Amino acid sequence: MIQQRANFDWMLKELYKSVPGIEMIVVLSADGLRIARYAGDEDAADRVAAACAGLQSLAGAVAQELPTSDGEMKVVIIELNGGYFYLMAAGANAYLAVLADVVCEPGNMSAHMRDLVVRIGSHLTSPPRRNGQTV
C-alpha cells in the first residue's frame, strides 16, 4: 500500500501491475527521505530510501569524471542474488527506486520506469530542505 501521499497511489500501482516481479517501489527525496511507497514493508522502504541517497550521490560523483557528462545520475541498475535494484532520477530532487525478483526483465523494468517518469515526473518532485525544513 501507499504511505504518506495518496496521490501517488495510481502511479505506483500502475507500475507494480505492469511489470511482473516487483517487490517494492519507493519514491524518495535526494536526501533519502521516503515520500511514498507501494508494496513491501514500511521500515524496509525507509532503509531503501536512506541507502539510495548515498547511491545517487556516488553515481553523481562518478559521472563527474566522464568529460561528456553533466554529472547527473540518470539510472542505476544493480543485479543482486535473487533479483534487481533500480534507481532512476524522477524529477527535481526526487528518485524512483524499485526492488524486483529474478522474474523481472531489466530492459522491461527500465522502460516502464522511464515512461512513468516522463509522464508524471513533475509530480515526483521534492523541494530542497535545510535543517530538516522545506525551503
Automatic annotation (TrEMBL):
Which Pfam families does the entry link to? Robl_LC7
Stretches assigned to the Roadblock/LAMTOR2 domain: 9-100
Return the InterPro entries for the record: Mycobact_SerProt_Inhib_Rv3364c, Roadblock/LAMTOR2_dom
Spell out the Gene3D superfamilies in the cross-references. Answer: Dynein light chain 2a, cytoplasmic
Q: Which PANTHER family match?
A: SERINE PROTEASE INHIBITOR RV3364C
- According to UniProt, the name of this protein is Roadblock/LC7 domain-containing protein
